[in-house]
Amino acid sequence: MGNNVKITSEFWGRYRNLVRTEMIPFQWNVLNDVAGIKIEKERLNDDGIPSEKSHAMENFRIAAGRAKGTHYGWTFQDSDVYKWLEAVAYSLREKMDPELEKKALEVIDLIADAQEEDGYLDTFYSILGIQYRYQSLAGSHELYCMGHFIEAAVAYYVATGNEKVLSVAKKAADNIDDNFGPEDGKIHGYDGHEEIEIGLLRLFHVTGENRYLNLAKYFLMERGKHPDFFREQAAKYEGPNALNGIEKAADTYFQNHKPILQQDTAEGHAVRVVYMCTALADLAATTGDAEIYEACKKLWNNITSRRMFITGGIGSTFHGESFTLDYDLPNDTMYCETCAAIGLIFFARQMLRIEPKAEYAEVMERALYNCALAGMALDGKHFFYVNPLEVNPAKSLKDPGKSHVKPVRPSWLGCACCPPNLARMITSLDDYVYTISDDAILINQYIDSASSLKLKNGTVTIKQTTEYPWDEKDIIAIKNETESVVKIGIRIPAWSSGASLKINGIVSEISKEDGYHYVELSAGDSMDVELIFPMEVKRNYCNPLVSEDIGKVAISRGPFVYCLEGVDNGTSLNCLRLPEDASFEYQYKADLLNGVGIIKTTGKRLELSKSSDLYTNSRPAEQDASLTFIPYYAWANRGENEMEVWIRE
Ligand code: FUB
Ligand code: ZN
């Protein structure tokens, strides 16, 4: 069904294979409590995190009446199963696997059995007291979980044509529609964690049923109109513990401080913000509403030009996993949750549907190749929740203010939202390569692949031949098999100076329109494009308003941000300096970290004082030091050690 983008890239092929062969089976074992995992505390002094097991599948079995017991885990434990199912859907879309399909069908049957007669679907309340449902929305995550289910169901239906899963999703959405909305007798409210809006819009896209679009719009537009909504619900609530005091969080935490269209800055919990923005941008793209798009742009600009780390990570503090204020980007206490980087990628994808601006694809690339990818180890079995730009393991161990910053990836997490999010992101990467409209295609990501893309009047095939992300050349063969003219936008990466282009072997001047060079192909035409985007090693500087990065430089090459790691550079990385005139040597090392490009140079190291005095009146001396940078995504794969992205210049 739909578009077919076959990813043949060695870099991404390895990851996608890893998700299929390691992550999906491993996560299945975790969900079924047979993986033998040890879940670490996420922070010192934090006993609030369920830490023994997942129990997610058992919750469904209990809710379905197939097992006895009670609910265990977070109120959003169900979403781990749904994200697993969504990743399975994309994986089956890429490659059929009867064994995996059998498991997925069993899960779908179980979910259908756990669904209440009237369509309500949430194991927490089905097990602990259905009479209390929809009454603690600040913390219950009921709509969040159903949103994830709907996303999974749509993905599974599109991949396999399975009608049952779609009908369970529609039944759940209809139950939500029966209970929420502007009409008298319905709840005039929304979930504490945005997600249902994304699911409903996806359901609208496959069914064409307007009520799902209207309900998504209702949730988005209602948010922030009555900031007391969560507190009023919580004051009356007598059901099982779904709140844990979250109702006392600031309105900004929930993006509930003012109506969305009036929000100028990204406030509160970062994942919530970008999920909200994803739905808002989808709504703008779907309805063509200019006011909604303006609201998206305000939030996009605030995030990407004031509140985003160079790795594409977002969320400056672990307090509320939140944004803080403009230019507050602390490298060693930040949050940068893997899910938040993934949410930013979702947001960028929707923005590209509205307006062909390459900055959306650039941010997508930045977040994908850096923060998001750092969320998993090269073995596909260990995961970061928090993605720091500077780590000293001793401080993570002793300083409660840094204890959320792990120096190595644990095998699983008490709050396990990130690993399955990564699995669904990587398995659906084919959806991020192009933006397709009726008569135009944007080439957003350079990934070795062969595609057949459906436009209004037929198919366009595009074959990309490239060693990207390591190599600076892409040969793109395009064939317009439609019956009309097709416009193709070729992204000229903003990080590359001096890109060059040949069309059918003839050098062509690049003219950029919002970051894309456009070519047109008449019906039946073919075109060979050779694009070269030099990947020189670049020095990146931060706006001086970011106090932590003053006098520092970060190194990048192509889409990758680089870092220094202790294993290559010794301890006390803060003592290292990269002089302005240092020149770089780039080498691809096939035998290191599954194949990486490293950057070497000669820098300086402060000599440690011979005395143990803390203060002295003489400036420490420096000596030459050889420096080795590796791509940020590959750090923490060689044991526990220090790491630093921003280095003194
Ligand atoms: O609340 C559900 C998920 O758990 C959020 O998206 C993550 O930030 C984590 O808090
Ligand atoms: Zn997460």
Task: Summarize this structure as a short list of keywords or feature phrases.
17 helices, binds beta-L-arabinofuranose, 17% strand, 10-stranded antiparallel beta sheet, 7-stranded antiparallel beta sheet, alpha+beta, 649 residues, binds zinc ion, Immunoglobulin-like, single chain
**Ends apart, CA distance between termini:** 52 Å
The hetero molecules present are: beta-L-arabinofuranose, zinc ion
Mean pLDDT: 96
Q: Radius of gyration over alpha carbons?
A: 25 Å
Number of helices: 17
**How many E strands?**
21
Assign an overall shape.
globular
Structural class: alpha+beta
Which ranges are low-confidence, i.e. pLDDT below 50, for 5 or more consecutive residues? none
- Main beta sheet: 10 strands, antiparallel
Can you give the helix content as a percent range?
25-40%
Q: Estimate what percentage of residues fall within beta strands.
A: 15-25%
